[in-house]
Amino acid sequence: MKTILSGDQLAITIKRLSHQILENCADLSDTCIIGIQPRGIWLSDRIVKEIRANAPGAAMKYGVLDITFYRDDVRKELHVANQTDISFSIENKKVILIDDVLYTGRTIRAAMDALLDFGRPAKVELCVLIDRRFSRQLPIQPDYTGKSIDSIISQRVKVCWQENDGKDEVVLL
Amino acid sequence: MQLSTKHLLGIRDLVPQDIQIILDTATQFKEVLQRPIKKVPSLRDVTIVNLFYENSTRTRISFELAEKRLSADTINFSASGSSVSKGETLLDTVNNILSMKVDMVVMRHSASGAPHFLAKHIPAAIVNAGDGINEHPTQALLDAFSIRERLGTLEGKKIAIIGDIMHSRVALSNIYLLKKMGADVTVAGPPTLIPKHMAESFDVRVEYDLKKALEWCDVANVLRIQLERQNQVLFSSLREYNLAYGVKKSLLDNLDKEILVMHPGPINRGVELDSDVADSKQSIILNQVENGVAVRMAVLYLLAGRRGEG
To answer: Which Pfam families does this chain map to (chain A) (predicted)?
Structure first.
């Protein structure tokens, strides 16, 4: 087991990602942040909290999206669905999808399909905490990256959160 | 995470965890049905035949909608107007349909056990949409979903099932499900419409006095008097049935709490349920219908995940 990000480093990285999003979004009222269930929402919760702390009163929308019903491997393994909560229109908005780890790109493909069922956004961007380079199976790349790592297929990246796992850290198993 | 069964033949075969998974998945599908595009691509590689040997409005439309919302291909078959009238057997009919590469069969049949028979002989996943006087599992699931949506849980809730318990597949499926999920059940109705030994066989209370049953319960699930299944006279007239067992506004108004009123439909207005009750805000009958699509989507989605296993 190897530590990729310690708790302190993780906090700094989240702060940086939030500031990059702030920097890129001139008008937050046109921006929607959408966390991908289940594990992306721990990150999106923190980023949204950070953005709101830095831009009080900003009318940025925040939702969570579950992609279970859009997966391309329904038949291989049954996944439990989680809650989707997008109680606003994404029509002509800038949407930033947030997930913890970008690996094959299949989750993001499914998320984009799911997203389009809610409307036609003006732009979709992707923010991930960990980008596992050279392992993509689809042409999908992040716009905001916490940390890029090189890993082999047999390895697993685990992002742990205080709220869920009792400790903030990212490890390579 | 998956169901313990390949088919949904009855609630009797399910374990509580199966019911929990189905209801939780249905909650997510209900959200899908609120979206601008009420459709997900999950079952786009699945073909489903709806085999209806008996009349149905709600169940059939509900299943068909559920299948379409899941992007499955569907075929509808009704016994009338088909080769069934030329004497083709059930197994032959189904095998012919399956040879056209159908993955799942949703079946309603007037013979109890017909879907169990099919499940033994064909490889497709079977969903029972009502078989004779045996079970109607998706109705019980959507009833449970509707109760859970209103009351938060099934555990410890008091449900009265009122009316023709003897001929009702809805009653049987509901009893199995509610008992598995820890609810208390009372069956109420005239003695001629309640089978003997109900209390011992199913661990339910039996009540012949409608007023007492209503006073006891949190939810009253009122069943239809099934005129088509009554070959002998079990009560003297519909008017008399209404007087003794019809759920009336005055009865509900005199209770010290507001109970929920459910009905699987179609309602015989003025027989088992008076119009002013059916249309009151205590009635969640139309919610049941709405939830039916989400619950059936969950069942089909979860069973399709098990397709192709040995």
So the answer is: Pribosyltran
